[in-house]
Design brief:
Elements (H helix, E strand, L loop, with lengths): L18 H10 L4 H15 L3 H4 L8 H7 L4 H14 L4 E9 L5 E10 L9 E4 L26 E2 L9 H9 L3 H8 L6
Antiparallel strand pairs: 1-2, 1-4, 2-3
């Protein structure tokens, strides 16, 4: 299968060309692509905390900021995940889900897709969500499973994004800190 070069290219917020991202991707690289996919995923899932869990206020946006802070909202966690995969030479992109917010209404949740034909059920891209670490009460218990969507309103949006969606980038720029973003600034649409 031919994938566009954008699936491996750095962007402003998915800065896979940052030296710290490159170094970590090399350190996490396994003997096979499937091991690398797993090791990078586990690193982000279990070592990058979410400010909703910690009360942290730092609002990291780029992958390198998220790595330095060791914390980020779901979008930042997904940016880091995609950047590490790209730095390891594995095609990856962003996806978004519409989910119900704690205060009602639908907001975007950031997840990622990674080219993993050896472990994906479809033989291609694998949808991954690093939001809940293994020891978190909301962890699904399934290694790769994303959060359980609640039909009929919550859903995976169909578009694949090789760069951060404009609505997400705007929300990250406009919020004063992570807690403000979580309280009132989560976008409901990608544009």
């Amino acid at each position: 299968m031919h994938l566009e070069p954008e699936f491996l290219s750095p962007t402003t917020l998915i800065d896979s060309d940052h030296p710290d991202i490159i170094a970590l991707a090399a350190a996490l690289g396994g003997d096979t692509p499937a091991e690398t996919v797993r090791d990078i995923f586990v690193y982000v899932r279990d070592r990058i905390t979410h400010p909703a869990d910690t009360g942290g206020t730092l609002l990291a946006a780029s992958a390198s900021e998220t790595l330095k802070a060791r914390e980020g909202v779901c979008y930042a966690q997904a940016h880091l995940l995609v950047a590490l995969y790209r730095a390891a030479g594995i095609p990856a992109a962003l996806r978004y889900q519409q989910v119900e917010s704690a205060t009602g209404g639908l907001v975007l949740h950031g997840v990622a897709i990674v080219w993993a034909p050896d472990i994906s059920e479809t033989g291609g891209f694998l949808l991954v969500d690093p939001r809940y670490p293994e020891n978190h009460p909301r962890h699904s218990g399934d290694f790769w499973r994303t959060r359980a969507l609640q039909p009929p309103f919550e859903r995976n949006l169909p578009m694949i994004h090789t760069d951060v969606a404009p609505g997400v980038a705007k929300a990250l720029r406009q919020a004063a800190d992570a807690q403000e973003l979580l309280r009132t600034g989560l976008p409901g649409a990608v544009s």
